[in-house]
Write a structure and sequence with these properties.
The complex is a heterodimer. Chain A has helices spanning 2-30, 51-63, 86-94, 126-132, 144-147, 151-160, 169-206, 267-282, 286-315, and strands spanning 97-100, 109-112, 236-237, 245-246. Chain A has 9 helices and 4 strands, in the order αααββααααββαα. In chain A, the strands form 2 sheets. In chain A, strands 1-2 form a two-stranded antiparallel ribbon. Chain A has a two-stranded antiparallel ribbon with strand order 3-4. Chain A is mainly α. Chain B is globular and about 70 Å long. In chain B, the strands form 2 sheets. A two-stranded antiparallel ribbon of chain B has the order 1-2. Chain B has a two-stranded antiparallel sheet with strand order 3-4. By secondary structure, chain B is mainly alpha-helical. Classes of the chains: A mainly alpha, B mainly alpha. The interface between A and B is large, with 59 and 68 residues.
Chain lengths: 319, 434
């Protein structure tokens, strides 16, 4: 048995090790500062959506985000899952203008939205969306919470903690240190490259061949301010966006919306609500899933226990 | 010969015309004698078979909802997740089922490696297993392309591009594989067709695999042949109940992931629709391919005649050869390890090298997840070198130079006395060659 153990550990380590390796890559590849970790009502085995927060998030989405971002996979009828009544859903859908058709005369026509319609996109196509936004395409938000590593934390950090006016000094210093180090490493690599090129150049000159003298790399300045990061024109600084330059200007401001339920609309509150809402749009079946999981696993534990007892009984005469 | 007996007239009537009951009895019933000392590592074969069935059932159901078109594939998967009744369950079971299939099969393979299950007379059984592994890899790769997310698209692009390394015909082969001049709708269509087809090919090879298994029966932890009824117990009920218990335990772990961490082993980028104009920062394959991916990228140098500058194998082709070689070497393993002792339990030096190989493969996995540069590239290169050294040099040498511990005289002996390799037994003698 002991000997089997060695093998067992090795095999398990192989499987487990490889399993752990995969998800770690997503963030490691981001090369940014680590994301803060927030608490979410949908975390954990018994996690559920905070309906009030998701509803507020929907309100912010409709008032702010929907100006640029589409939401292709959510239909008005889906809002029933958030606790809206049929009339409320009909009213919300009716605010949208939908192009339908062709009618019996072969013409496309406009009509008020109905519950089965999907959320209308702000632009007719991606080209139009990019054109209206200085060349940067605002991505569809339906799956955003799953399409980024550590999605909900990323979204809240990005909208509520990452912009120049929001970011903590501590985080800034972290970024500056990281970038300074990165530039130094890059400089050293360039320098090495330069020295090799210089040697080649000198050899060629000695041999009487034509050659252009390579230019030495510039010594990097330490990064001490956001300006030193050298973000492109038109990009806003954001501590949590890969590369720190994001095309989306700070979207949320205190009291940018007036919440229907009277909650004070701070930036932090709105960012949390939008992150909650986007988690729901990305994973609308989360509550079904977690609820079923408890039942399935409890059943399996009992059933496996019975099977173990059966195994013991059947094998009693062999051991 | 046939130990199958019944008094049920209906069964008798059928059995006389179609002897399916005695067939089942010989396959998984009381008519199939199995070694009495199999450990829980012998559960993973049946687990792999059951996982294959789970994958086929969920896959067929999803195929009824999926649309294999570049404009609709991503959306149709989201429809399955949102609008199909229990579609989210089907997809998460299928998606994570692939991961668990590989976990189970890799444990199954390492069990075979440790206990010498590839040795005579089970060489063909082992080789059929390697064929199954290859088919699984092809199926998993093509299945991963179907949702048409960013990693789907770019993974397909990187892997199909490997074939361009083949001299002279490479570029032509790639165009032929793609069905065009880039990864596009024809590629997705054929991948869907093949992803549906290959699992049934796997079923066919699994049947051969089990057929070959039943010729000599299972190997066992001490690796010596069964020598009579005292060494065996009927498959049913002993191993049916043990396999059922193992399945239960497996399903608990599997369910925990499906219901609570369904996207843990996946990659966030695959929830972004494929965009041929935007390359992800890092294209990383699924974890089960990472060791092979590391081997592929470890060959960063051309291979040629020294000091002449003549290149025989370019780095890219070298990587492809090494990657496929990593599996090809498994095919000839029964002839590389010529030690007459099967089980690693009685081979002290082999055991050390086996642990080293396991660590080596894990290291390769980590290296495959990192960008191929600096220290990780070096680790990948050293690990790749050891991988091949292990099979091509260490195992053949061990067969000659290692002195195995004495083998027990029979299976029932250590089982009856409750001892393992520690007990004194007959001196090691070569197994009879089949």
């Amino acid at each position: 048995m002991r000997k089997g153990l060695i093998f067992g550990l090795a095999a398990l380590a192989a499987a487990a090790g490889a399993t752990v390796a995969a998800p770690g890559t997503a963030r490691a590849a981001g090369e940014g500062i680590p994301l803060p970790s927030f608490e979410w009502s949908f975390d954990g085995i018994f996690g559920t959506y905070d309906r009030a927060s998701v509803q507020r998030g929907l309100q912010v989405y409709r008032a702010v985000c929907a100006g640029c971002h589409s939401m292709d996979y959510i239909a008005f009828r889906n809002l029933a899952e958030l606790g809206y009544s049929e009339d409320e859903i009909k009213a919300m859908a009716a605010e949208a203008i939908v192009i339908d058709g062709p009618n019996d005369e072969g013409e496309m026509f406009e009509r008020a939205g109905l519950p089965f319609d999907y959320f209308p996109a702000p632009f007719p196509n991606d080209r139009a969306a990019a054109f209206a936004n200085g060349g940067a395409l605002p991505p569809d938000l339906s799956l955003m919470a799953k399409a980024r590593a550590n999605g909900p934390n990323y979204l809240l950090a990005l909208m509520g903690h990452g912009y120049e006016d929001q970011v903590s000094d501590e985080t800034l210093q972290q970024i500056f240190a990281l970038e300074t180090e990165k530039r130094q490493t890059q400089y050293e690599a360039n320098l090495e490259n330069y020295e090799t090129m210089l040697e080649v150049y000198e050899e060629r000159v000695e041999a009487g061949e034509e050659a252009t003298r390579p230019t030495p790399p510039e010594e990097p300045q330490p990064v001490e301010s956001i300006e030193d990061l050298g973000l492109s024109e038109g990009l806003s600084f954001n501590a949590y966006f890969p590369g720190y330059g994001i095309a989306m200007a700070m979207p949320l401001f205190d009291d940018g919306v007036e919440y229907a339920d009277g909650t004070p609309a701070t930036v932090e509150q709105m960012a949390t609500d939008v992150a909650n809402f986007l988690m729901w749009t990305a994973e609308p079946k989360l509550e079904d899933r977690k609820g079923m999981g408890i039942k399935v696993i409890l059943f399996l534990l009992v059933f496996t226990g019975i099977l173990y007892a059966a195994k013991r009984k059947v094998w009693a005469d062999v051991h | 010969m046939s130990g199958f007996q019944t008094n049920n007239t209906v069964i008798k009537w059928i059995e006389h015309r179609l002897p399916i009951f005695s067939f089942l009895d010989h396959s998984v019933g009381s008519g199939y004698p199995s070694p009495k000392n199999l450990s829980y590592f012998w559960n993973f074969g049946s687990l792999a078979g059951i996982t294959l069935v789970i994958m086929i059932v969920t896959g067929v159901l999803m195929a009824m909802q999926y649309t294999a078109h570049v404009d609709h594939a991503f959306e149709s998967v989201e429809r399955i997740m949102r609008d199909v009744n229990y579609g989210w369950l089907l997809r998460y079971v299928h998606m994570n089922g692939a991961h668990f299939f590989f976990i189970v099969v890799y444990i199954h393979i390492f069990r075979g490696l440790y206990y010498g299950s590839y040795k005579a007379p089970r060489e063909l059984l082992w080789m059929l297993g390697v064929v199954i592994l290859l088919l699984m890899m092809a199926t998993a790769f093509m299945g991963y392309v179907l949702p048409w997310g960013q990693m789907s698209f770019w993974g397909a692009k990187v892997i199909t591009n490997l074939f361009s390394a083949i001299p002279f015909f490479g570029d032509g082969i790639v165009v032929w594989l793609w069905g065009g001049f880039s990864v596009d709708n024809p590629t997705l269509n054929r991948f869907f067709a093949l992803h549906y087809l290959l699992p049934f090919v796997i079923v066919g090879v699994v049947i051969l695999h089990i057929w070959a298994l039943h010729r000599f029966g299972s190997n066992n932890p001490i690796g010596i042949d069964t020598k009579g009824p005292q060494d065996t117990i009927p498959f049913h009920p002993y191993y049916t109940v043990k396999d059922a218990f193992g399945l239960g335990a497996f399903l608990v772990v599997f369910s925990a992931v499906v219901f609570y961490l369904p996207n843990y082993m996946g990659h966030a980028d695959n929830y972004i629709p494929a965009n041929p104009l935007s390359t992800p920062a890092h294209i990383v394959p699924e974890w089960y391919f990472l060791p092979f991916y590391a081997i592929l990228r470890a060959i960063t140098f051309d291979i040629g005649i020294p000091f002449t500058g003549v290149v025989i194998i370019e780095a890219k082709l070298g990587g492809v050869i090494a990657m496929f070689g990593a599996i090809a070497v498994l095919f000839v393993l029964p002839w590389l390890d010529r030690s007459p002792v099967r089980s690693g339990r009685f081979r002290p030096i082999f055991r050390l090298f086996f642990v080293l190989l396991a660590i080596d493969v894990v290291l390769l996995g980590f290296a495959g997840a990192k960008p191929a540069e600096g220290l990780w590239l070096l680790i990948a290169q050293v690990s790749t070198a050891y991988y091949f050294l292990h099979f091509l040099v260490v195992l053949p040498l061990l067969s000659v130079f290692e002195t195995p511990k004495p083998l027990p005289t029979s299976i029932s002996e250590p089982v009856l006395k409750g001892g393992g390799g520690a007990m004194a037994g007959a001196p090691a003698k070569p197994m009879e060659k089949a």
